[in-house]
């Protein structure tokens, strides 16, 4: 079928480009890590506003096979809101992370998993006849779900976050924050930041530019304000919705209803805007241009 | 052979020995009572808050965080804080035994061992004092009378950690399991979770307090049955006091609104408090002495006897744990 551009036609070259882009979609790979029952699947459902994961409680715990073994499950979802290019979301979700009594190997296993995605790309790159259209499964961002405690991060969380933060853009979130009072949430955020600083855990810094220079406050003040707001809100307090697909992202139970997109109640909206809006491309770029390159240098220097 | 039961006679005129209960009471009031309670559970479940709420006093503080200089493999610690509370002339000496680090390590395989060791050490100390020729008149009692075990409100089966710890702990002390932060669950989720936990307890055959005994009166036995159907108690704690209708009540306010801790339709804090302080306080102390301590004592004394006979006959002394 030939398409001819005639005067008065409503199809412009730009529209053709946009249509092609929309068809291809944007790839985005996200690692969701954290212990069991912290609302990781609910979060993805809320993010995409549909039931990506079936949350039938009683089923999930009696799955046949290894009941307490750590694994990472991969799923592909498409997020295509009105008027935007669809995002092809690849979700790596941990299962039984930290569930068993002896979990010394879990940080190593997650490190191996992250590096495997890098290695796949590297191996393909080094081939003579390489496939340029290989699926890029490099993880662009990792969200680590923290179980809120006024005492701060547990040893396990510290270890996991340190490991993940070395190889991936790491964003810490506080799970199930609707269970906390406002003053508790404030204390938890404070103590988590202290722990992250003291234990030198590498997390994604919104105020660092691409070349590690701090973003200058004088330039682009609204952007600076936005980025400061994000940086100040770390770790992000998440509440998951149990009314996905109904048009309103809320959490309801007998006591009432909370609108999780209300920024005064939780940071869900901030996180969604970071992942699908303001920082989607930046997270991808940093992964490809910095983190992957770092891995590449280390791998090739080994040989 | 039948034992002669002495005939029960009522004195023809009032003698007055029934005042012995008052005499005992005034003696005991002077001495005060000792209650040792251990709280067990991973961090973030509101253990310190609950203890403070139970006794309406600031007894524990949520302690320090991990510092970067701490070794990566820590063990569960034991922190004892002692307090004396007084209510209507009755003095209660409380030892609150906190267990920071429980369940928080990377390798949790033996995280209950320091707890078991502590409980046994208290029995051991008491036994040694008891067996001393010149012993104190009133032996200081540091034996653990009650272990409050906190279970996370996630609606799932017991974690491996909880199964192992509950098994080991309920063998040596009175264990009272509670569902922590139960305000995170709806009422239906709560009763479903309770039923599931009760099944789990039965499945693993945990010896959960209160225990059956021949010495109980019928109404006591009925009370125990009622308690058993409630266990594990679904609780929430709060140190925030608010005036509602002129009365001071403790509330917990989240984005969902406020819950009144003392309202039994919202959480079972009141049941737990009454259970621990108003109905079973004496029994907890007594059962520790009469059941758990006795079991320990018997084992130790038999082992001692065996060691002695082995020594006499020149046999190698077997290792006894």
UniProtKB/TrEMBL annotation, chain A:
GO terms for molecular function: GTP binding. Keywords: GTP-binding, Nucleotide-binding. It is found in: Bud neck. It comes from the Eukaryota. Residues 24-302 form the Septin-type G domain. PROSITE patterns: G_SEPTIN (PS51719). The keyword Nucleotide-binding applies. GO terms for cellular component: cell cortex; cellular bud neck; septin cytoskeleton. The keyword rRNA-binding does not apply. SUPFAM superfamilies: P-loop containing nucleoside triphosphate hydrolases (SSF52540). Belongs to the TRAFAC class TrmE-Era-EngA-EngB-Septin-like GTPase superfamily. Septin GTPase family. This is Septin-type G domain-containing protein. It comes from Spathaspora passalidarum (strain NRRL Y-27907 / 11-Y1). The lineage of its organism: Eukaryota, Fungi, Dikarya, Ascomycota, Saccharomycotina.
UniProtKB/TrEMBL annotation, chain B:
The keyword Iron-sulfur does not apply. Its main location: other. InterPro entries: G_SEPTIN_dom, P-loop_NTPase, Septin. It comes from the Eukaryota. Residues 31-303 form the Septin-type G domain. It holds the Pfam family Septin. GO terms for molecular function: 1-phosphatidylinositol binding; GTP binding; GTPase activity; molecular adaptor activity; phosphatidylinositol-4-phosphate binding; phosphatidylinositol-5-phosphate binding; structural constituent of cytoskeleton. It is found in: Bud neck. GO terms for biological process: exit from mitosis; mitotic cytokinesis; septin ring assembly; spore membrane bending pathway. Gene3D superfamilies: P-loop containing nucleotide triphosphate hydrolases. Keywords: Cell cycle, Cell division, GTP-binding, Nucleotide-binding. The keyword DNA-binding does not apply. Transmembrane segments: none annotated. One of its GO terms (cellular component) is prospore septin ring. Belongs to the TRAFAC class TrmE-Era-EngA-EngB-Septin-like GTPase superfamily. Septin GTPase family. PANTHER family: SEPTIN. This is Cell division control protein 10. It comes from Spathaspora passalidarum (strain NRRL Y-27907 / 11-Y1). The lineage of its organism: Eukaryota, Fungi, Dikarya, Ascomycota, Saccharomycotina.
């Amino acid at each position: 079928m030939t398409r001819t551009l005639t005067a008065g036609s409503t199809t412009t070259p730009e529209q053709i480009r946009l249509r092609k882009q929309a068809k291809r979609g944007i790839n985005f790979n996200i690692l969701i890590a954290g212990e069991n029952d912290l609302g990781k699947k609910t979060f993805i459902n809320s993010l995409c506003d549909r039931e990506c994961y079936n949350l039938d409680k009683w089923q999930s715990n009696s799955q046949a096979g290894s009941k307490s073994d750590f694994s990472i499950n991969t799923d592909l979802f498409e997020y295509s809101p009105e008027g935007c290019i669809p995002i092809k979301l690849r979700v790596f979700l941990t299962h039984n992370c930290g569930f068993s009594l002896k979990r010394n190997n879990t940080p190593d296993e997650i490190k191996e998993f992250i590096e495997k995605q890098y290695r796949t790309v590297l191996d393909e790159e080094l081939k003579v006849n390489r496939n340029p259209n290989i699926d890029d499964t490099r993880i662009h961002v990792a969200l680590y779900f923290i179980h809120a405690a006024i005492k701060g991060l547990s040893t396990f969380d510290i270890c996991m976050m340190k490991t993940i933060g070395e190889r991936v853009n790491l964003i810490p979130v506080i799970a199930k924050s609707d269970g906390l009072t406002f003053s508790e949430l404030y204390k938890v955020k404070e103590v988590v930041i202290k722990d992250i600083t003291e234990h030198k855990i590498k997390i994604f810094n919104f105020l660092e530019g691409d070349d590690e220079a701090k973003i200058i406050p004088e330039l682009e003040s609204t952007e600076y304000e936005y980025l400061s707001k994000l940086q100040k809100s770390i770790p992000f307090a998440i509440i998951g919705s149990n009314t996905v697909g109904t048009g309103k992202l809320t959490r309801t139970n007998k006591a009432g209803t909370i609108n999780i997109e209300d920024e005064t109640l939780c940071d869900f909206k901030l996180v969604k805007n970071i992942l699908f809006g303001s920082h989607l491309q930046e997270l991808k770029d940093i992964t490809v241009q910095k983190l992957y390159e770092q891995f590449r240098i280390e791998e090739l220097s080994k040989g | 052979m039948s034992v002669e039961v002495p005939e029960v006679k009522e004195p023809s005129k009032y003698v007055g020995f029934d005042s012995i209960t008052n005499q005992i009471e005034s003696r005991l009031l002077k001495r005060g009572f000792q209650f040792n309670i251990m709280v067990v559970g991973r961090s973030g479940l509101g253990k310190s808050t609950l203890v403070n709420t139970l006794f309406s006093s600031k007894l524990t503080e949520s302690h320090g965080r991990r510092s970067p200089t701490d070794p990566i493999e820590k063990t569960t610690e034991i922190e004892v804080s002692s307090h004396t509370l007084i209510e209507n002339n009755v003095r209660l000496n409380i030892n609150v035994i906190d267990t920071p680090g429980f369940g928080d390590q990377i390798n949790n395989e033996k995280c209950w061992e320091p707890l078991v060791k502590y409980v046994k050490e208290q029995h051991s100390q008491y036994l040694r004092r008891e067996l001393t020729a010149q012993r104190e008149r009133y032996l200081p009692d540091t034996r653990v009378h009650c272990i409050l075990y906190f279970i996370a409100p996630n609606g799932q089966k017991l974690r491996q950690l909880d199964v192992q710890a509950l098994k080991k702990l309920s063998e040596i002390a009175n264990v009272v399991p509670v569902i922590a932060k139960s305000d995170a669950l709806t009422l239906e989720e709560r009763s479903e979770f309770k039923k599931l936990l009760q099944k789990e307890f039965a499945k693993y055959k945990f010896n959960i307090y209160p225990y059956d005994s021949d010495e109980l009166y019928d109404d006591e036995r009925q009370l125990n049955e009622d308690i058993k159907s409630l266990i594990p108690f679904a609780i929430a704690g709060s140190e925030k006091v608010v005036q509602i209708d002129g009365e001071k009540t403790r509330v917990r306010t989240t984005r969902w609104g406020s819950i009144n801790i003392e309202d039994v339709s919202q959480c079972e804090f009141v049941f737990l408090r009454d259970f621990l302080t108003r109905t079973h306080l004496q029994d907890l102390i007594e059962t520790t002495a009469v059941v758990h301590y006795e079991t320990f004592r018997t084992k130790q004394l038999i082992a001692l006897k065996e060691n002695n006979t082995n020594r006499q006959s020149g046999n190698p002394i077997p290792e006894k744990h």
